[in-house]
Each structure stands twice: as structure tokens, then as C-alpha cells.
User: Fold this.
Amino acid sequence: MAPRGWRRAPLRRGVASGPRVRRLMRPLWLLLAVGVFDWAGASDGGGGAARAMDEEIVSEKQAEESHRQDSANLLIFILLLTLTILTIWLFKHRRARFLHETGLAMIYGLLVGLVLRYGIHVPSDVNNVTLSCEVQSSPTTLLVNVSGKFYEYTLKGEISSHELNNVQDNEMLRKVTFDPEVFFNILLPPIIFYAGYSLKRRHFFRNLGSILAYAFLGTAISCFVIGSIMYGCVTLMKVTGQLAGDFYFTDCLLFGAIVSATDPVTVLAIFHELQVDVELYALLFGESVLNDAVAIVLSSSIVAYQPAGDNSHTFDVTAMFKSIGIFLGIFSGSFAMGAATGVVTSYVTKFTKLREFQLLETGLFFLMSWSTFLLAEAWGFTGVVAVLFCGITQAHYTYNNLSTESQHRTKQLFELLNFLAENFIFSYMGLTLFTFQNHVFNPTFVVGAFVAIFLGRAANIYPLSLLLNLGRRSKIGSNFQHMMMFAGLRGAMAFALAIRDTATYARQMMFSTTLLIVFFTVWVFGGGTTAMLSCLHIRVGVDSDQEHLGVPENERRTTKAESAWLFRMWYNFDHNYLKPLLTHSGPPLTTTLPACCGPIARCLTSPQAYENQEQLKDDDSDLILNDGDISLTYGDSTVNTESATSSKMPWIGSLHLETMNWLFEEHAWFFQWMIPNPH
Assistant:
């Protein structure tokens, strides 16, 4: 058994954890009496006091040295980000698009990691003492009795026998290796929240059905395709004797879930800069936003899969349905928690006068949004899903209650945090390739992984696009499908999922391979985005706000009619009840609720709502309404159609908005027969 390294330092998990540490959830207190050398004059009281003073001086020097080293480590990352920002400016100034900022950050991280690994050596500490003790397990906490004084030591990780003489170098590399929880609790929340908060709802909801299909069904297909292919590779590795540890089918499925999390940040940044076709942008962005959430819940469900009565990782129907139930429960619970936090924030900002103190308003918004992630994780749900839907809810409701200054502040604040966190993660990826000390690279597994991710992405995009085109009026063209296939980059989410647990041989191999996949896709696919757009003849220079200018009216009506039916169904309820209930916009509740609810309506309606009651349509109405087809009124409200239609059929005016949409789309032939053409 390899020796264990003990140091007086905080407990670290994930990257620097031993293979048995995860199974030891409770601190194991082990009292170990250590015989030390009998120093001359040990029984002398004056000599003991002098030694105690010397020990305090040494301890203070060690603490000061540790503080300096920690500051230097953080300075390295600050300098990395600074260098990345300056290089980004140079690239934008020169209009160079062959390498994105995330790829630059990874290159700089690689260079720094290379220097730290092979260019810097820390001299050995003469005070280090190696003692052997036969124990059956790895205690996470150790108490050592040295001459009647008890010292607490914590487990940092396993040290292989050939690294016993490089303990100090390993300590330096370990200090620049962050706890995986830092990524989940600090770096991921602003990235995911900004994705939801900056969502372009108009194009997202027009393609909601397709986006949900790609994100949910497509991610599941990709996961199982990749897992099956990798299980074949693992079986081949077992036959050829290349495996040095256990690797089960559930591990293969977990790897499939990890690398199914796409992160086309490079492609989307180029799309935004070139103003690529808005439909393609909406499909790719919407899929990537929900795909991350699905991938992390799917990975949690796979980890929870456990057949009853054994640990053989065999197929069991009961365990499979249990995992499916866990998936649905975690996702729905996380969704509800994120939406609930957004609703609470909207209520607080609506019924208080925080808008008069913009700094307090922005601070509350920031803390409530971030706490969503931690609250979900503390309750056993998934913070990524919760903070994503919290961002969408905040943008849809709370944003309307904020003062103008706070609206700008929150947008800019989370945009900045997203930029810094994203580049920090990519810089750290490059650094980790050299500083992580338990890499397991296997050529067969790496080659199989690259083949698997391409086949998994193809099984996601092409069959689903074929099925979706059967029900879409605006078809997803083959060039769009090829571009979506090409844009399946892996990034921050795949890295964060892989690094979260590297305790076993299988997890270490998955982490090392995931790093290579991220490097390849970001550099090769991200750098080739512009050339691929030109090759596939995808239009650029499209202004999303003016996309319909110059388009014939009949085409505009067709486009709006393709808004997702699910969104059309709840739009009227949201506009008439939820928006007035949670914000200052929309019609007053006194005009939309029944007369018997008058007291409650007056209590929940803000004075600003009466001032804005003339604004009968909000921004989302453009998603589903055809110009001139439907007009909204409130109070003694009805929903009226065009004048010709209303004069022929006055009874239609009492129908709800979503019913009208459904009637006109599904039974257009009937109305054409009943309403003669005036021409």
C-alpha cells in the first residue's frame, strides 16, 4: 500500500483525495502515540521553555511563508486573466477569429502549469518526518501525541512510493489545485444565472419545442450512445490487460452524461459578433442552456443507480426506474425552487421601496439570485437547474420592478462575473493538465471517447431534426443541422462535473480524457467556426431586432404562428394574472380577476399598475400575436379578431386568447369556408 501523506492543513476533497476518503463521511479520530527522539536536557524546565519558544517562532514563520505562497498562487491566476484580457483586446482590434478568448486562456494556463510542474522545485523541509504505522483504513483526521502535546493532522491525499522525495513539490502543486466545490459554489452560479438572465425570450420561445427535444431527449440519447461505445472500449481494454482498476457500465454512462454537456461559448460568441441567423442562434443557445441542467441531473441519477442486494453494477429494472424517478424529482424540485426564489424576489421588490436605494436593491437582487444555488444544493437538489430558472424568472418578472439604474447594474454585474468566471475556469483547465497529480491517460479510452462524442452528437442532432421537421413550418435546414453538429463543444460544465470526484481509478481516467476533449473541441471546432459558416452558406449580418423588416406580411404571420403551442397556452394567463401579481406591468388585477376577488385584487395591485393599464400588450405578445389579428382589452374584456371576422361571427369574441390561436391554426380551412374573401 502506498504511503499516506499527512500535513497540518485544511481537509481537501476531489482532486487531492485518496480513493477511500469519500467513503469516510465521519471524522475518524485516531489517537497515535508517537515516540520521538530524546533531546538532551528535555527534563530541564528552562530548556523546555526555550524549545517551546523556538517552536512558536518556527510556527509563525511557517504560517507567514504559507500566506505568501497562497498570495502568489492567487496572483498567478490574476495575471493569467489580465494577460488573457489584453490578448483578447489585441485579437478584437485585429479582427482575428481563429482563436477565441477561452482558447487563449487555456493556452496561458498550459504554459503556467508547465512552468510550475517542471520549472520550479521547492527544497525539502528538514523538519519533515516519515513514520510508518499499520492501519486498516485512511482516517480523515489524525491526533498525534508528541511529548504530551496533541497535534491535529488532516488527510490531504495518497502519495505514491516514488514521490516520497518530492513531497514539497507535490505540496506546491496541491496549493494551486482548487477544491472542486469552489467551481460549483462560486464559479458556476454566475455563469448559469447569466445564461438565464440574458435569455432572448422572443426567439427562445418560438423554438421552445425543438429546444426541449434537443436538450432533454437529445442529451439522453447522447449519454446512452457514448456510454455504450465506451463500455465496448472498456471491455476491449480488459481483454488486452490495459485496465488497472474497476470500470463498470455505470461509470461509462456517467462519462456519457459528463461529456454530453455542451458549452458552445466560443461558437456563440462568434455568432453574436457576426450576427448569424437568429433561428440558428436560438436553437444552439437554448439547447446549450438547458443541456447543462439536464446533464448534471442525469449524472446525479446515474450515480444514484444501485441494484438491490449487491454492488455488481448489473442491470436491474427496479434500480433503473428508481434512477428515472430521481431524475424527475431532482429536476422538478430544482425548477420549482429556482422559480420560487424569483417570485419571492419579485414580491420583495414590488411591495417595498427599495428602488429608491439602488445600491440596496442591486445587493438584494444579487444575494437572492446566488442563494438559489446554495439553497438547492443544501436541500439535495441541483443548484445549476435552480439558478438557471431563477435567472429566467428574474428576467421575466423581477426585472420589471427594478429601477432603471438597477436594471443596468444587474445586467452589467452578472455579465462581468460570467466573463471572469468563464475565463478563470478555462485558464484553470490548462493549468490542471500539469498540476493534477493523478492523471490516467489511456490511448484506447481516449480514441474511443473522441469517436463516441461525435457519434453521440450525430445521434442527437440528425434523427431529432428529421422528426422535428415533420411538425415545423420553418424547417431546420441541413446546413443548420451540420452547424449544430459542429458546434457541440465541451467546456466548463463538463470539466466541473469531471473534476468533482476523482477518487477512483475510473473517475481519474474520465477526468483526464475530458480535459483532452475540451482542449480539442475548443481549439479546433471553436477556431473553425467562421470557416464552417462560410462553407455551409449560413447568412450573417442579421439584426435580430429588425429581422422582419422587408419580409412579406404573410411570411411574418407564418413565423409568429410557429411559436411553441405550449407557450401560447399559458401566455394569456401569465399576462392577465401573473405579470400584474408579481410586477408593476400588465393590466390591474381589479380588471382581470372576478368581482368577488375585488379586495384581494386591490391589495395585490400596485399604484404603478393603474398608471400602466393603457399598455395592453407587453414584449412577449410579439411572440404569439399576428399584427391586426387579435386586440386585447380589459375590464369588460373580450378577445376580438379582425373586423371582418368579428362582424361575421360575434360569438367568437368571448373565447380565450389561446383558444383563438388554436382555432385559427388548426381549422383555418373552416374559417376560409365561412368567411368569404372580400375581394
